[in-house]
Amino acid sequence: MNSPGPEAFPLSLCPTGMVPQRSDSPYVPIQVEEIVEQVLECAELGITSVHLHARHPDGEPAWQKEVFAEIISNIRVERPDLVICVTTSGRRVSDLAKRADVLELAGDVKPDMASLTLSSMNFASSASINSPETVQALAMKMLESEIVPEIEIFDVGMVNYLNYLERKGLLKGPHVVNLLLGGVATAQAGLLDLGLLVERLPRGSLWSAAGIGRAQLRANALGLAAGGGVRVGLEDNLHYDDTRLELATNAGLVRRVLELADSLGRRPMTPGEFRDVLGR
Asked: What is the pLDDT of residues 1-58, one digit of tens each?
């Protein structure tokens, strides 16, 4: 595995997600052109990759590969280098065929990566259901399609399951891992929580710290200070401050990470460097 140096880190943007609506914030991108515009703006700032969710015009989550294809094609016209990850989340969609539909994309709209959440969990008012059968079926589909899993880990049991799936041959390194901290029923954005998760990851994993809600800035800062990467964006956090008085924008959140990274002598990986690490 090639390395761009310890100062470089993967910076992933999650611009919209499945849950935030325009009624929650006017800055949440819903329409295809809004998602594309905000991704391209952040690509100019220096993100490494983008973690895409698709929406129907009414704001509801879209699982159909045709919607993702439109977003991907419009991004790649302007930024063919940007690493693109698509969601297979079970938070609003439980049916395996629907979750895997986006993995059928090929040619110019084939995603580089796809999310893979390794277990079920509770959020504040909803659950994400990820049965072992579903997780393994999605992992096998990604393996067959040569799409790199972006592994989503919310708690230590999911790290154990990552190691289990690696032993079964369903996941192959180097692993790209998001450690999502601060959920009401999962690992918190603390030094011990993060340290335990990182310590138990397979050797050579490329990990990033993400924070849910108020935990976003703390998690991002911990990730950068500990030598990891960052996932940031309105999917996880709609506010710029802990008092939740100032609404955030995707570009504003990215700029804050870049300023923090610069103060620590670190910089985001270019998409090309990230592809080299992945061997793609």
From this structure: 457 888 999 999 999 999 999 999 999 999 999 999 999 999 999 999 999 999 999 9
Cα–Cα distance measured from residue 142 to residue 147, given in angstroms and rounded to the nearest whole number? 5
Distance from CA of residue 131 to its chain's centroid? 20
Rounded alpha-carbon distances, angstroms, from residue 34 to 27, 114, 206, 251, 253 = 9, 21, 30, 13, 17
Q: Name, in order, each residue with C-beta under 8 angstroms of 263's C-beta and a sequence gap of 6 or more.
A: none
Global confidence as pTM: 0.96
Per-residue pLDDT reduced to its tens digit, 70-95: 999 999 999 999 999 999 998 888 89
Rounded Cα gap, residues 202 and 167, in angstroms = 11
Cα separation, 138 vs 141, in Å, equals 5
Identify whether 174 is preceded by a cis peptide bond (ω within 30 of 0).
yes
The whole-angstrom separation of Cα 16 and Cα 29 is 6
